[in-house]
Amino acid sequence: MSIFAAELNQADHSLTGDDLLPDSLLNFLACPTPKVWLSWALENPELLLIDHAQCEKKAASTAMSLLYRYVDQPLLLSKMSQLAREELLHFEQVVQLMEKRGVTYRHLTASRYAEGLRRHVRTNEPERLIDVLIIGALIEARSCERFACLIPYLDTELAKFYRTLVKSEGRHFEDYLLLAGQQTREPIDERIAFFVACEQELIMSVDTVFRFHSGVPA
């Protein structure tokens, strides 16, 4: 059974999750998800769920990596511990939904999205950590924005689940930005703007493989 309840041009927009997105999140991203990506998602419902599960697992892994690397920062430890628990719970929930719908969880190659951002990470500290945290903020913000974009086209069960994700994960990008700003006394606005522009390029440029964070189809 398809996970999509509506075609792109016949969606019930009363189900939209846009009203759940804070203005701070919408203003943080340089562009909305292109409609052509939504069309691509409708054509790949199983890949959408599988890659969503992988994204939740990767998010938990990133948080755990920061926990182990930066043990001298109490606020970071607290925020990342909470985030890791939430992401693993969401991973379990997505896998359960997949099993219920007969979708087999399997390994997928990573999209170019995260790597396209991480290739710009500086090597010295605290610059490295600042960049990693800004990237984390962008990934979380884009994920929430895409959940909201998808909601009108999903069946009732999955739409309800994605609405809960928008609510629970909407604060993650703010946590990442808060932590990034605490690493230096210097403004980080210029560095944020740099990565926001990189993220926009990845979202708007051509991709050959569909993933949750891919760009537009070739």
Assign an overall shape.
globular
Q: What is the H level of CATH, i.e. the homologous superfamily? A: Ferritin, core subunit, four-helix bundle
Number of domains: 1
CATH topology: Ferritin
Strand order of the largest sheet: 1-2
> What's the mean pLDDT score?
92
Specify the structural class. Answer: mainly alpha
What is the CATH class name? Mainly Alpha
Q: Catalogue the unreliable spans.
A: 12-16
The description of the largest β-sheet is: 2 strands, parallel
The value of Rg in angstroms is: 17 Å
- The secondary-structure element order is HHHHHHHHHEE
| CATH architecture classification | Up-down Bundle
**How many strand segments?**
2
Amino-to-carboxy terminus distance: 27 Å
Strand content: under 5%
How many helical elements? 9
The helix content, as a percent range, equals 55-70%
What descriptive keywords fit this protein?
tRNA-Hydrxlase_MiaE, two-stranded parallel ribbon, mainly alpha, 9 helices, Ferritin-like_SF, Ferritin-like, 63% helix, Ferritin, tRNA 2-(methylsulfanyl)-N(6)-isopentenyladenosine(37) hydroxylase activity, tRNA-(Ms[2]io[6]A)-hydroxylase, 2 strands, 218 residues
